[in-house]
Amino acid sequence: MYSKCGFIFEAEMLFKKMSTKNVVAWNFMIFGYANHGYSIKAIELFIEMMEKKGCKPDYLALTIVLTACCYARMVDGG
User: Fold this and answer.
1) What is the pTM (predicted TM-score) of this model?
2) Which label site among 2, 35, 44, 76 has the fewest CB atoms less than 10 Å from its CB?
3) pLDDT for 38-51, tens place per residue?
């Protein structure tokens, strides 16, 4: 909810405090970053989700990160 209202840093604080994060929580945070102009941060979080946390992305996560690549003009990254 915080990220939808533009409070991305408040959303980030809550996200970091979560003891268990499922793909839905990751998606909300990645989308929040991408939607508010933090495309690089969104992509970094997506990579962290997969590589460091072992969370398998769903179709929505892939769509969000592709959108973030477009926003960042990272055509090769997508």
Assistant:
1) 0.81
2) 76
3) 999 999 999 999 99
